[in-house]
UniProtKB/TrEMBL annotation:
The protein, known as: Uncharacterized protein
């Protein structure tokens, strides 16, 4: 009986270690975490084109990347994946998390959205196989409460926005300078 109990505990520990290692690229969410800063401006005399500056941050607020992009469209859209773990998993150190996955341009005119060229930039390796696997199994897994995509989009108005991740998804807030 003791051998079976020990084997069960060993298997459970290995499963928790496996899940922990796979979620390394997803950062923990316990409130609102500043994940990015976006500043997008239209380019004079070139319709439907913007210059976008994207800065990404880690969980401690340190810059992980800073890039400029030429983005086609009237609005920018920043997308990410969210993983929500059950509360009991906090006891073993696993917290819900996010990963920024894509930057896109959007057109305000639906005809242009259907027919014009788009800008799509994968961030941080895109969705990745881990998210696709977890998403398919999320509704039947005792280890994942929810797995979903989220996005925030705003016009290229020259303003600077801080992007925050929370349990509810991505949120953009104007920077007050």
């Amino acid at each position: 009986m003791r051998g079976a109990s020990g084997l069960i505990l060993l298997v459970l520990a290995l499963v928790i270690l496996w899940v922990t290692s796979l979620t390394q690229s997803y950062l923990g969410l316990t409130g609102e975490i500043k994940v990015a800063r976006v500043q997008a401006s239209t380019i004079s005399n070139i319709p439907h084109l913007m210059n976008l500056e994207l800065t990404q941050y880690d969980q401690q607020g340190r810059v992980t990347s800073h890039d400029n992009y030429g983005v086609k469209g009237d609005q920018w859209m920043l997308q990410g994946n969210m993983l929500k773990f059950p509360g009991w998993m906090n006891l073993v150190g696993l917290h819900s998390g996010y990963k920024l996955t894509r930057l896109e341009g959007r057109y305000e005119d639906s005809d242009l959205e259907r027919t014009s060229d788009h800008t799509v930039v994968d961030l941080n390796g895109g969705d990745g196989q881990f998210f696709k696997t977890v998403y398919k199994q999320a509704w039947s897994s005792p280890f994942v409460e929810a797995a979903y995509g989220t996005a925030v989009f705003l016009p290229a108005d020259g303003m600077t926005y801080d992007i925050f991740a929370s349990q509810a998804g991505l949120v953009a807030k104007p920077v007050k300078e």
